[in-house]
Design brief:
Elements lengths: L1 E3 L3 H9 L2 E4 L1 E2 L3 E5 L11 E4 L3 E5 L4 E5 L11 E13 L14 E4 L3
Antiparallel strand pairs: 1-8, 2-9, 3-4, 4-7, 5-8, 6-7, 6-8
Length: 110
């Protein structure tokens, strides 16, 4: 579950739900393609707090970091490039540690 903040990318995401995808991992980040594209928003960020829900514009994917990625400096969550911030996961994002690449995921509105 996630709490999403209003905005153009969130609106697009909600309009394509439900959808399914295959999961990829990159360090302590889970990401998966979704059938949409969006422009980079003015407040896009590359370094975010653990548990931030992001849309990776270059990959048309949702990105869910909870710790270090291969390009992190220190203990930060550094994404591959600036991403649109959509909201935050509820609860402890470290639960994503159990997700494995190649697994299937279904995303739906609550």
């Amino acid at each position: 579950m996630a709490d999403l903040q209003p905005g153009p990318t969130v609106d697009k995401l909600l309009s394509i739900l439900p959808c399914e995808s295959s999961v990829n991992t990159w360090g302590k980040e889970v990401y998966f393609e979704v059938p949409m594209s969006a422009a980079l928003e003015a407040d896009a960020q590359q370094v975010v707090a653990p548990g931030t829900v992001c849309f990776w514009v270059e990959g048309n994917a949702l990105a869910l970091p909870w710790g270090r990625t291969p390009i992190s400096r220190g203990d930060e969550c550094r994404l591959a490039s600036a991403c649109n911030v959509l909201g935050r996961l509820r609860g402890d994002a470290a639960v994503l540690n159990t997700v494995r690449s190649g697994g299937k995921i279904r995303i739906e509105a609550a």
